[in-house]
Amino acid sequence: MRSRAAAYPLLAVVGWGVMFPVLASALTRVDPLNLTTARYLLAAAVLVGLLLLREGAGALRHGGRAVEVVVLGVVGFAGFNLLTNQALEHAAPQQISLFVATTPVITQLVRWVRDGVRPKPLLLALSLVALLGVGLVITRGSLAGLGQFGLGGLMMIGAVLGWGVYTHGASRFGDWSPLRFTTLTALSGTAAMLVASIGADAVGWQHAPAAADLVAVAPQLAYAVVVGAVIAVLAWNTGVQRLGAANAALFMNLVPVTTFAVQIARGYRPDPVELVGAAITIFALVAANLANRARTRTSSLPQPTAVTDPTAVVDPVAVAAR
Predict the structure, then answer these.
(1) 199-202-204-210 Cα dihedral, nearest 10 degrees
(2) 192 near 78, Cβ under 8 Å?
(3) pLDDT at 292 (0 to 100)
(4) Are the C-beta atoms of residues 318 and 165 closer than 8 Å to each other?
(5) Residue 245's closest CA among 185, 309, 189, 184?
(6) CB-based contacts of 4: which residues, under 8 Å, 6+ apart?
(7) Contact predicate 214/39, CB 8 Å
(8) For the chain, what percent of residues have pLDDT higher than 90?
(9) Element (H or E) spanning 180, and its range?
(10) Structure-model confidence comparison of residues 310 and 5, the more confident one
(11) ∠ CA(121), CA(251), CA(98), 5° rounding?
C-alpha cells in the first residue's frame, strides 16, 4: 500500500523537474509575472471544475478556515511560483532545481519555528553539506562565480521557504480531500498573482503579452498548467496525506535529477564540478531525509498512521506541488 502511495509524490516531482526547463523557454516571450498568472488562471479554472464535479459547490466553502487557506495560498502558490519564475531569469533551470531540492530541509526548519520541534544536529550538518553542493553547481567551483548567487538565489530561498510553509500547513488539513485543499489554496494564490501582475503592468515593470506571444508559448503553458499546476500539485498533496510529509518530502530530491537529465538531453554539457556539486547535494538531502524518516518511524510506532502522528508531520504543494 505504501509503495502504491509513493507513486503520487514521485509523479509530482518528475513533473516539476521537467517543468523548469519548459518554463525557462517560455520566459523568452512572456514576462514572469504574466506567465505565472496566465498559468494559474487556467489551472484554477480546471481545479474548480473538478471540485464541483467530484464534491459539489459545498466544497468551495472554507469551513471557518478562510484566513489559513488564504495565507497558505498566497505564501505557497503565489510566493513560490512568482519567485521561481523570476529566478529563472537570473539562473539556469538546473541551478533552480537544486534549490527546490532543499525543500525537505527547509520544512524541518519551518517546523522548528512553528512547532518548537528542534532539528537534530545531524540534519543541520547535512543541510550545510547540501548547500555546499548547490554552491559548487552555481559557482562551478570558482570564487568568481559567487556573484551568480545574486538575486536569483535569494528569490529561490524565499520560494522554497514559502513552499515549506505551505506543505507544513497542508498536513493540518487531513479532513479535507487533496482536491479541495489544492483548489481553495490555488484560488487565493491566483488572486494574489493577478493583483501583482496587474500592478506590475501598470507601473511598467513588465508588459502584458500579445496574443502572438501567448500562442508561441502555448505548448509550454499547456504543460505547466495540466502537469505542473494541476496533476503534480494534486499528486503532491495526496502523497503528503497518505505517506506523511516527512516521507513525501524525500522525493523532492529527484527534482534536480530530472532537470539535469532534461537539460543534458537538450544538449547541455555540465562541468565535472557541477556534477560533483549535484551529487553532493542529492546525497546530503537523501541522507537527511532517511535519517528523519527513521526517527519518524520509531516515534510513530504507537500510532495507527503517520498522518495522525504529530511527530511525523514535518511540513503546501501542492505542485506542486510544486
Answers:
(1) 100
(2) yes
(3) 62
(4) no
(5) 309
(6) none
(7) no
(8) 23
(9) helix 178-203
(10) 5
(11) 75
In sequence order, what are the residues at sequence separation of 6 or more whose Cβ sits closer than 8 angstroms to the Cβ of residue 97?
Answer: 17, 20, 255, 256, 258, 259, 260
Cβ atoms of residues 87 and 96 within 8 Å: yes
| Amino acid of residue 140 | R
pLDDT for position 257: 77
pTM of the model: 0.72
DSSP codes of every residue in 231-263:
IHHHHHHHHHHHH-HHHHHGGGGHHHHHHHHHH
Q: Minimal CA–CA distance to 66: which of 183, 188, 179?
A: 188
CA-based nearest residue to 259, from 284, 238, 282:
282
The H-or-E segment that residue 295 falls in is helix 272-299
Q: What are phi and psi of 123, to 5 degrees?
A: -65, -45
> Is the four-CA dihedral 302, 308, 310, 316 of positive or negative sign?
positive
C-alpha angle 104-317-322 in degrees, rounded to nearest 5: 80
Which grid coordinates are listed for 9? 509524490
Fill in the DSSP letter of residue 316.
-
CA-wise closest residue to 314 among 158, 115, 99:
115
Residue type, 42: L
CA distance 39 to 41: 6
Alpha helix (H) ranges present in 31-102? Answer: 32-55, 66-72, 80-87, 93-100
Q: How much helix, strand and coil, in percent to the nearest 5, is found in the chain?
A: 80, 0, 20
Question: In this structure, what DSSP letter does residue 92 have?
Answer: -
Contact 36, 280 (CB under 8 A): no
Q: Residue written as cell 497542508?
A: 170
